[in-house]
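TICKET #2291
ISSUE: user wants both folds in one file
ATTACHMENT 1:
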Amino acid sequence: MEPAAIEQMYQIENHHWWFVGKRLLVAVLLGEVLDTGRLRILDIGCGTGAVLAHFKERARAVGVDHSPLALAYCRKRGLALLACADGERLPFVPASFDVILMLDVLEHAIDDVGLLRAVGALLRPGGMVLVSVPAFQGLWSPHDEVLHHLRRYTARGLRRVMNEAGFVVERLTYTNVAAFPPAAIARGILPRVGLARPAGTTDFRVHTPWVNRALIAAYQLEALALRHVRSLPIGLSVAALARPARFADAGQT
């Protein structure tokens, strides 16, 4: 991620609808997992630390990111359990964590299956990973290029990659439903009529307070829906909650 994008993320992450929505969806997808005691959680690609800070009072939350700048912003949030590393060289011993978060991380990996295998080795018996990735290659835009994405996924494609890496997917759903229609217009339709967004820009725009509140309300509704249905049929992202097959085979729950 470009340094300017990291700084922008730190400035808006506490209140911007996209990041507030992400935290709402993570909480509902993990659901009862978070109520099983003081867990050890690893946030891979923790960025500037807003998700990590959200969990630090409820769990022993550790963050890892390859960007020293992002980790410096984490420290500004008062976070101390941090490591500077990339996904291919995670500095942890096997079976260290109960929950691992990979939120908008897998799309950066050249070898996504290999990264998932390495992550699986870090989980304790019964442990789970929550993966969230951008959806639909047809929505590729300058936003992906600034954030150094390599690909976008479908739900079927994410399941295939996770199965190949040795995971059993227990929940698979599209997310960020409210963001899908405007993104489809901005990234799919407008470029065809010569109104593409300039290169070198992201979609993290600061909206007026009422628009921001309205979008957060939309995410609250999405979180409520995900408490009652297993999956949503479309969205700007796709998320999977999974556990290593070796635990499932051993009868772990």
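ATTACHMENT 2:
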Amino acid sequence: MYKKILTYLFFSLTAIISCKNNNQSSARKPVSHNKKIGDEKSVNLSKNLKEKEEEYIRKMISTDSIHHYINSGHGFWYYYVKQNIQDSIFPKTGDKVTLNYEIRDLSDNIIYSSEEIGKKTYYVNHENQFRGFIEAVPLLKANEEAWFLFPSNAAYGYHGDEKRIGQNIPLKMRIKIFQIEKQKNK
């Protein structure tokens, strides 16, 4: 009996001492991260990337003596391949647009060909598309075609399209509008 009590005391003391030595009896302090510094760093990286991409696109534009580029006012540039000067109807929110497009990188490598994509129906501002596409379609009338140069923040951005377009890839995109069906007023 005396042996059992001594064994019990030995193990109890050992457990208490080992807990004290490992600081397991006191709560761990949380690891703190300064979110503000992390956010500022992320914003600065994004600004630098945007500036470098826009500078690269401006250089491309300045060396292209064939095309007349237009600043969209939305952070991207475009030029017409075919312009419809007789029509004055631009697509508005909810209008059904029949179109085709092709996506390339800025080195002119085809990512998605127009043949692969085929004719598409797009309801203006009612479908999930990248920002540049959403803002580009209303700039074109029926029977117009244009090439757009999008910095990555106006294209698929940080996530890419999770298929063929990687992270932070600026894009060149041709959009051709075949038909615009105006939304009927209710």
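RESOLUTION: both attachments delivered.
EXTRA DETAIL ON ATTACHMENT 2: The two ends are 94 Å apart (CA to CA).
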